[in-house]
Amino acid sequence: MVGAYYGDFNNDTDPRAFILQWNGTKWALSNSPNPGSGNALTGVTCASASDCWTVGTFYDPSAVQTLIERWDGTAWSIFASENPGGSARRNSLNAVTCTSGPECWAVGVSSDGARSVTLIERYVNAAPLPAELQITSITRLANGHILLQGIGLANNAYRLEASPDLSAGSFEFLAAVNSDSSGLIGFEDADAANFDRRFYRLAP
């Protein structure tokens, strides 16, 4: 079950996304990423117990953009999605369905304020990243730098990419990082002191 909530309806103008998961006995609140100043989830589907997807919308200072999150059996994380027209259009996703594999389809609306058109996005898991590759923690240090820690295959080289938002094509190469003999990855981003928020991803 997904949706949005207000911390204080009278004073809090920014909705936050929420996800409830059934544990076999009762519904429990699951931690959901909230990338923008306002977030809402409107559709959810599961291809398996360890592969679920939810879609919706997030609001950044300049645009309404699509939001996709994925459950890997342990945690929800943000999944990159397309936003035709970038910040010049309002883009939202309303529903999603997936098959085993998976192959997923999400549908919604893209609008320039005068005219709205159907928005359809498709994901096919043709070349998944290794399951071991992930960012495990992001910590803002006292000096404004951001310390990233992750895990990958042992003694392997990866690309670290960064973006000030989650719009399509906004991620740019930041640094080459190497895992140690245990697969651990660490990097301190000194440039992050210039950003209120910054998003990261690892790639082979």
Oligomer: single chain
Residues in β-strands, percent: over 45%
Strand elements, count: 16
Shape: globular
- Stretches where pLDDT is under 50 for at least 5 consecutive residues are none
Structural category is mainly beta
Task: Supply Rg.
Answer: 18 Å
Q: In the residues, how many domains can be counted? A: 2
Mean pLDDT: 83
SSE sequence, one letter per element:
EEEEEEEEEEEEEEEE
Number of helical elements? 0
Task: Set down the secondary structure blueprint.
Layout: E1 2-5, E2 16-22, E3 27-30, E4 38-48, E5 51-60, E6 63-71, E7 76-79, E8 90-99, E9 103-111, E10 116-124, E11 134-140, E12 146-151, E13 157-163, E14 172-178, E15 184-189, E16 199-203
Antiparallel strand pairs: 1-2, 2-3, 4-5, 5-6, 6-7, 8-9, 9-10, 11-12, 12-15, 13-14, 13-16
What's a quick, concise take on this entry?
The protein is mainly beta and 204 residues long. 0% of the residues lie in helices and 56% in strands. The protein has no helices and 16 strands.
Please tell me about this protein's structure.
This protein has 204 residues and is mostly beta strands. It has 2 domains: 2-124, no CATH class; 134-203, Immunoglobulin-like (Sandwich). Helices cover 0% and strands 56% of the residues. The protein is built from no helices and 16 strands. It has strands at residues 2-5, 16-22, 27-30, 38-48, 51-60, 63-71, 76-79, 90-99, 103-111, 116-124, 134-140, 146-151, 157-163, 172-178, 184-189, 199-203. A 4-stranded antiparallel beta sheet has the order 4-5-6-7, with no helix packed on it. Strands 1-2-3 form a 3-stranded antiparallel beta sheet, with no helix packed on it. Strand 5 (51-60) and strand 6 (63-71) form a beta hairpin. The radius of gyration is 18 Å and the shape is globular. The relative contact order is 0.13.
